[in-house]
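Our preliminary data section would be incomplete without showing what the modeling component actually yields. Below, a chain of 87 amino acids is followed by its predicted structure, encoded as tokens that our downstream tools consume directly.
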Amino acid sequence: MKLYRVCTENKNYPDILDYLDKHFPDGYTVIHANGAWQGQREKSLVIEIVGELTAFYQVSLAHFIYFLKKHNGQQAVMVQRLILWWT
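Predicted structure:
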């Protein structure tokens, strides 16, 4: 399993939730945060999505990042991919 963590500006929050509901029905977590980009403080969102490392998830995540950049007018969106294991 992989955990995808997406950090983005908190803009268009209802639209982001609608997108997540539609494209990641297995679940996600949204955490409200504060951050800064290029010296400017901003309200941020940390979005965590757990999924398999499949072509479907890779494409879905890429489309989500594109949506965020275009919909929020952002130059960049930070994405982390973490490997999960259970003990």
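The longest helix spans residues 55-72. Residues 2-83 form a domain with the Alpha-Beta Plaits fold (CATH 3.30.70.120). Preliminary results of this kind motivate Aim 1 of the renewal.
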